[in-house]
Amino acid sequence: MDIATLIGLVAAVGIIIWAITLGGSLGAFIDVPSVAIVIGGTISVVMSRHTLPEFIGHLTGAVKAFLPGTPKLEPLVEQFPEFAQIAKKEGLLALEPKAAESSDKFLKTGLMMLVDGLGESAISSRIRTDIEARERRHGAVIAAWQGWIDVAPAMGMIGTLVGLVQMLGNMSDPKSIGPAMAVALLTTLYGAFIANVVAGPITNKLKLYHDEEAVYCEAVLTGLQGIARGENPRNIGESILALLPPATQKALAKK
């Protein structure tokens, strides 16, 4: 679990609520028409931008912002030289037990392609197809959450305009001015809150984990290609190591 995402969101919401309660009642910041315009309107517009499966998928996809499932890249630096050494000494069929032991489906699939005797070009083609499919799925989820960032403030502005029109149209009735102003101001607040406190962090984290997963897939492909070409195990490990940040490279080099 990525505790930073959870802590950040809880802290942001907590600070906002704390500041509101210091200045008055929290109930004054709850307005049903404003909620309907911003949340209902944003959901409707985002849904209209995507297919229904994509819309549903982006809601469940947000879980990855809190529970990232990307395997660590560092173990591959040691694993692939070991796989290459086994393949050189015992043949590619000897990698089947290693594939069975792997908990990562992507790595397991790649090793089984080596075991099945697929050449470098065939492995590269199939892995690239898998990577592209992942990118499309992740891109659809990220685009939907980006939609919340784009649409929520706009719906807040629409609500503000609605409230101002209602207020200006009923200036003769002092009792209607307060509720109309509440809609006008609270919709802007709700739109900014959804876009910057909720959707923004989720979108950024999903982009971050997508990039990490892309590097991981590239590292696995690099290792598989090296084994298929019969490269030196040490060279394969160094090729994967080059994909890591410099600080991580130095830390692993000291081991």
Task: Tell me what you see in this structure.
This protein has helices spanning 3-23, 32-49, 52-61, 74-90, 96-101, 105-115, 120-169, 174-229, 233-241, 246-253. The protein folds into two domains: 1-30; 31-255, no CATH class. With 255 residues, the chain is mainly α. The chain is elongated, with a radius of gyration of 26 Å. Helix 2 packs antiparallel against helix 7 (120-169).
Q: Look at the helices and sheets and give the structural class.
A: mainly alpha
**Radius of gyration over C-alpha positions, nearest whole angstrom:** 26 Å
Main sheet summary = none
Proportion in β-strands:
under 5%
Helical content class: over 70%
Helices, by number, come to 10
**How does the overall form come out from the CA principal axes?**
elongated
Question: In total, how many beta strands?
Answer: 0
Mean pLDDT: 88
Task: Count the domains.
Answer: 2
Reading the helices and strands in chain order gives HHHHHHHHHH
Distance between the termini: 27 Å
Q: Give unreliable regions as ranges.
A: none
